[in-house]
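Human
Can I borrow your eye for a moment on a structure tokenisation matter? Give me a protein, with the fold worked out from its sequence. Write it directly below this note and I will take it from there.

Assistant
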Amino acid sequence: MHGGPALAPVFERARYPEATHIHWWHQPLAKPCAERPYRDLLDAALAELQRVAGEGGQPLTLMASSFGAHLAVHLARQAPQLVKDIVLLAPTYNPEDASLRLARRAFRVHSHDHHAGKLAAALSMYEHDPGRPRFWDVFGALTLLPDVTELYFGPTGGAQAASDFRALIQQPGAFDGPSSVAISDDFAALDHTPVASPFTGPVSVLFGTYDPIIDADKDRTLWETVFPQASFFTVETGHFPLLELSLEACLDPA
């Protein structure tokens, strides 16, 4: 389950064309004027799990990246009997905090860019008056900076992954902005106090050493509350371990 929200699995499919045993789920877009787009996505994810597990006749491994980790948490809570094990790749517990951390990192890297002042002003206004409107102001200013997507990747093997990411993100259907905004805002309106999951099977959590958006120490505490049995690993990547490491290394980091 990919992140975003509203990113399509074009990156995973391009990197692992031979992985026919993996179901790269293309998540549905938010419907226009939907009242609960994030919760609609959760419902769709559960229906997809039930369908694929039913066709295979056995529990499934859930592999979730970034924001997709919240879908995995929902599935493990609603249908633990259909889940064999869980692999969380750079799971983002609080997407708003994560995006703000990326914005501050981008400002430090691109402080001499002529758009940097707009980002600084947006961050300052958010700090004085936090909330979704100010958050989207920050996000909009962030997109004005050059090569922001390169910050997602680590120094070893990340250059090619970043280049591939830039090319693929421009493909039609790779990312849907309106769905991302709608799903993100609906998610932000809900309570996300961590609660222990009824799923007791194996859980692996991978954090990238060079991830610009995750505070691994802080987030580990949150994920330990949800999955007390989880094993945590640090890998030499940025925010997308699956695009910098091999599939085998992500599924079996030990």
Summary: The chain has a mean pLDDT of 95. The chain has two domains: 10-95+152-251, 98-149. The radius of gyration is 18 Å.
